[in-house]
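Entry details:
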Amino acid sequence: MSRKPELRGRAARLARLFPGPGSSGQAARTPFVLLVVLLLGGGLIGLLVLNSALSEGSFKQDDLQRDTKNLTDEEQALQRDIDAYSAPDALQRRARELGMVPGGDPAFLGPDGKVKGVPSAAAEQSAAQIPLVLRPPETVAQSPADTVAQAGTPAAVPTPSLTSTPTTTPGR
């Protein structure tokens, strides 16, 4: 019968770590099974955390897209209002409502100090041209037949006084 040689030093320590052909191998199998179970459990928990983070990000993205759409709609509505108020006919109507009149031909000063053109005062506005009510630009787009039908009976036209109070526009 062959006798197994006795190991010493480093070889003896390595031999103790690995089970021999005569041992059952139970001691080496338990850590391996525990390692596999821990790796699988950790992987599943990691996937669960990753899935939760992705779904949370998806909900935040949906909320941000909804907010962006609402803000874009609001921006477009405000831009339409700005365009309506800055249209030439709306500016002219508002200027007349504030008592402004169109200016005449302008006069210019040349570099030598001479006046080019004839300066003149602006024409006065008659009482018939002074509006009674401030209207938003949306109502100006109506046809003249609609405004005559809405007028019904004629109202008394007040005479403007020289010391009138300035009219204020909404939003200013």
